[in-house]
Amino acid sequence: MLPRLLHAQSPTNVLERDSTVRGDTSKLMDLIDVGKKLFNIKRPKAPDSTGRTIYFSVLPFSTQVPGGGTAIVTSTTAGFYLGDRKDTYMSRVTFTPYWNFKKRFGLPIRSYIWLKQNKWVISGDTRMMVYPQYTWGLGRQYGEDEKLLVNYSYLRLYQTAFKRISHGFFAGVGYHIDYRVNVRTQNGDPLLQEYTGYDYGTSQSLNSFSSGYSFNLLFDTRNNSLNPWDGYYTSIQYRVNPTWLGNDNSWKSVYVDFRKYIRFNPSLEKQNMLALWGYLWKVFDKKIPYLDLPSIGWEDYNRSGRGFDQNRYRGRNLLYIEAEYRRDITSNGFLGFVVFANFNTVCGPKSTFLINWNPGAGAGLRIKMNKRSGTNIALNYGFSKDYSGIKLTLGEVF
């Protein structure tokens, strides 16, 4: 697959085409323009051609969180260039802390940094979280109403550095830590080990520690990962968790992610496109901690599975496929809409990989928060057989 992708388009062509389509934002409108009109704020001078200005988007809101309850969330996204925008893609940093005024909070910071002339890409994911989450065992082991609440504190440290090889193709290495403290169920509930019938990482009040290094391949021609207009994204990660890095048992995993953005009428400024996303997540060896097994909504950016509870399906193998149609409603790009459908399949009790599929679907509204970074407020309604819900985020899901 990769050799064919490498000849599809070069990063230079993507940048040149994008500067024609979205380089002039004077005809577009965002919430910043609305605020300027309401409060009669004069427009600043045009930004310098290097585009090194940082484009902030901030969205405070209240939402339901996995495990039940409501939390106060403030999502902040920063888009910026670390080189001339003619040969450097836009970097992003996202900080989404939440708190529910009790003992539940999260401090996730995610970054995707393009260095000058796209010579290096550095991806980071740091999280400190204290919260309960529901689980439904493996495969289709339990129905929607048979869920079990699991409490723990969580620290994640992921860092990966990629070096450009040629034409949007990168290779890199990474280091990853998943540390879960005091994994337990509540008094009166079944123990996690009894509930799942799984022996690794399920003992009451244990600490689950996974530490590993990874080898990575990346092909990325999206000039703006906050709101891609075209291009490809393909990543392959092979992670090794040896005992000499502190793991109780040695285990390995592979994660393959593919995305494609297809624009209709590319000569027009109005967005009208189809976005495709799929990933395969597989673990090897037998003694993998339960909470490290592939699970819906637990890929790198926790965006998969719209229309499902996070963790709803878990197994040793997970395949996820999603398609989303995106279109502007207004000619100035201020309002837009999406419709989407997704499917996932896992292996486990009552679920055969690639045979039993779990479908979800939904639609969403888009409001332009910052036209220069392309950041949208995304309001999505998703549903599946046993669940429906609304999620509010900054930026596109993928």
Provide a descriptive summary of the structure in words.
- By secondary structure, the chain is mainly β.
- 8% of the residues lie in helices and 49% in strands.
- It is built from four helices and 17 strands.
- The protein has helices spanning 2-6, 11-22, 31-39, 192-196; strands at 55-64, 70-80, 91-95, 98-99, 105-114, 120-135, 148-166, 169-185, 206-220, 231-241, 251-263, 272-284, 317-328, 335-346, 358-370, 375-383, 388-394.
- A hairpin with a 6-residue loop joins strand 13 (317-328) and strand 14 (335-346).
- The chain is globular, with a radius of gyration of 21 Å.
Tell the overall outline: globular
Rg estimate, integer Å: 21 Å
Helix proportion of residues, in percent?
under 10%
List unreliable stretches of 5+ residues.
1-21, 46-50
Q: Mean of the pLDDT scores?
A: 85
Biggest β-sheet strands, sense, barrel:
17 strands, antiparallel
* SSE topology string: HHHEEEEEEEEHEEEEEEEEE
By DSSP, the count of extended strands is 17
- Number of helical runs? 4
Strand content range: over 45%
The class by helix and strand makeup works out as: mainly beta
State the end-to-end distance: 20 Å
